[in-house]
Amino acid sequence: MFTSLLDDRIRVARGSLAPARAAELMAALLRDTPWLAVRYENDGRPRELPRLTVNYGERSYDYSGLVFTPLPWTPLLAELRALAEAAAETRFNALIVQLYRDGEDGVNWHADDSLGVGRDPIIASLSFGATRKFLVRPKGAAEPCLTLELHAGDLLVMRGDLQHSHQHKVPREPEVKAPRINLTFRTLSGPAPQPAVAHASRVVRWPEDGE
Ligand SMILES: O=C(O)CCC(=O)C(=O)O
């Protein structure tokens, strides 16, 4: 059952996966995902995205000037895609998996409005692990107009003109000590998989050896 927010630009289904199943999936995703730390340069200084990220599906995805070559769907991710497709009533061909290792990781204000997602994209997001805040603000505004807590097993759908009218963010929450994984399913058009920008990223084992 969805709660509809912001004139139906956001729909949230709380507990769309039962707690035990969500915990099982969190453990499997943590263990089996070949996590990538994304390195880039800002003003000539080496930087790293404050989260780990991996792409799956049938289309390359580009952001921050980098092209990410997707891995093929795994049986588990294809199963979750089917769940997201049924809930969002659309088909998805791409997935971004993000690992927020703890509350120091996050994602800053942005909209998912790159050319590949097309006009008014439907994006379905599944959350696992630690509860984190998800903020939404109108473009051009300083303050959020919506603050949600996303829990393990919650499914959120962004739709309509949300990516043109609003931005979203997962803020740092240093008091959160546990990891969170988020899956966002998208429908991309345009170029099929392209060569990876291997130099931009490095694969890390997480937790790293010795932790
Ligand atoms: O982790 C989340 O809930 C949001 C991820 C996100 O902002 C995105 O993939 O664009």
UniProtKB/TrEMBL annotation:
<feature type="domain" description="Fe2OG dioxygenase">
    <location>
        <begin position="91"/>
        <end position="189"/>
    </location>
</feature>
<dbReference type="InterPro" id="IPR032854">
    <property type="entry name" value="ALKBH3"/>
</dbReference>
<protein>
    <submittedName>
        <fullName>Alpha-ketoglutarate-dependent dioxygenase AlkB</fullName>
    </submittedName>
</protein>
<dbReference type="Pfam" id="PF13532">
    <property type="entry name" value="2OG-FeII_Oxy_2"/>
</dbReference>
<dbReference type="InterPro" id="IPR037151">
    <property type="entry name" value="AlkB-like_sf"/>
</dbReference>
<keyword id="KW-0560">Oxidoreductase</keyword>
<dbReference type="GO" id="GO:0051213">
    <property type="term" value="F:dioxygenase activity"/>
</dbReference>
<dbReference type="InterPro" id="IPR027450">
    <property type="entry name" value="AlkB-like"/>
</dbReference>
<keyword id="KW-0223">Dioxygenase</keyword>
<dbReference type="InterPro" id="IPR005123">
    <property type="entry name" value="Oxoglu/Fe-dep_dioxygenase_dom"/>
</dbReference>
